[in-house]
Amino acid sequence: MANSAKQLHNSDIDRKPVVLVVEDEVVIRSLLATFLRDSDFAVVEAANADEAVAVLSSQAPVDIVFTDFNMPGEMNGMALAGWVHQHHTEIPVLVTTGAADMLEILGPVLN
Amino acid sequence: MHKLINDKAAAEPGSNTLMVVEPDVLARMCLADYLRDCGYKVIEGGLAQDVFDILEAGGTIDVILAEVNLPGGIDGFALASQIRKTHPGIDVILPLGIAKAADKAGELCEDGPKEKPFHPQEVVRRINMLRERRRTSKPS
User: Fold this and answer.
1) Using the beta-carbon criterion (under 8 Å), do A54 and B46 form an inter-chain contact?
2) What is the DSSP string of B69-97?
3) pLDDT tens digits for chain A (111 residues)?
4) Is the ipTM of this complex over 0.95?
5) Is residue B128 within 8 angstroms of chain A, CB to CB?
6) Is the Cβ pair A58, B133 closer than 8 Å?
7) CB within 8 A of A51, min separation 6: which ones?
8) B109 min Cα distance to partner chain A (Å)
9) Which fold has domain B16-135?
């Protein structure tokens, strides 16, 4: 994971790569954020897509978005990925899900 | 529920874990980053329920820094009252507004594991700057 952090590191910017973690369950978000911080990433935590949009709109530095698929609110993880793709084309988005059946649904879309 | 959190997100021996409960993600991010720079482990939440979820999962919290006005049906006062009953060892600080929250974060940093990285009013300035940028960007 530390290597991944280095790979994401932009040598023009003297800072750790920043992961925006979007996850509504605080226990999972906290564990994931701690793991990423221990792996030499900087982490911004958002509890839903609206918070993620607020962070991105504030121009706080973000290098990658790591989002859950299922979230409360108007936007789920895929809708958030669409928003990021539209407004911040340079930022990659990783959409994850803990639901196995969701992977089957998403498979064709992601491929 | 998830009985996983103790080892990683909670305190290591000799360290302190703070939980920042603040509904505004930009304010929460800046306050939490500041406290991390002071050497604390920081858990972030936007609702009082997030505190209960962390504790139920076995997480250790030494101090809660919570906004008084919280969404979700449990405000800061109710959170503090509940925590006093169930976890009397956890200190709950209830600043009213961002400026007070930054002041309290500064006081925590005075006692923190590391030296204070900058004046807490710089946290307020950063929050206001990010809020202004968000306000003026307003992409659809």
Assistant:
1) no
2) S-SSS--HHHHHHHHHHH-TTSEEE--SS
3) 555 666 655 545 678 999 999 999 999 999 999 999 999 999 999 999 999 999 999 999 999 999 999 888 899 999 999 999 999 999 999 999 876 666 666 666 655
4) no
5) no
6) yes
7) A22, B25, B46
8) 20
9) Rossmann fold (3.40.50)
